[in-house]
Amino acid sequence: EGCEVVDRTGPDGAESRELNRAKRQRVVWRNVILMALLHIGALYSLLLIPKAHLLTWIWSYICFMMNALGITAGAHRLWSHRSYKAKLPLRIFLAAANSMAFQNDIFEWSRDHRSHHKFSETDADPHNAQRGFFFSHVGWLFVHKHKDVIEKGKRLDLSDLLADPVVMF
């Protein structure tokens, strides 16, 4: 009741195939290969756990915390949301920590995150959850951006990022 499904495809399903083709995005094979290699390396590292020295564990923990700080305190809170102001030494540290996480540079990360909040759950959202769980968490990294992400992303005010020499380094 209140819902009607209309089949607008021809007898051969031509319109449906055309819509599916238009919705598909080109795969970024470099990202697919890098992600596969990253996971192969992670699986291999499990074999090395029994041989790891205490200093290796400590260094790994320090690197993990720096990565987390670079993303959460840097790219996310400082540069994407402008939640606080930071002096140059802290901005340099957060930029270095962010780069260790291999999650794009600060400018791209912040631009995509601002797009995500401004255009949430639309085609202009880089990791639109309407496209499914896998796409919103990882899949968006494996395909070229939707044209709406690019077009609407160009209209965002990114002047603060462009004016920050640490971001643009």
UniProtKB/TrEMBL annotation:
Q: How does it sit in the membrane?
A: Multi-pass membrane protein
Q: Where are the transmembrane segments?
A: 27-46, 58-79
Could you give a single Gene Ontology term from the biological process aspect? unsaturated fatty acid biosynthetic process
Superkingdom of source: Eukaryota
Can you name one GO molecular function term for this protein? Answer: stearoyl-CoA 9-desaturase activity
Give the coiled coil ranges.
none
What is recorded about the protein's domains? The histidine box domains are involved in binding the catalytic metal ions.
Protein name per the record: Fatty acyl delta-5 desaturase
Q: Which organism is it from?
A: Clarias magur
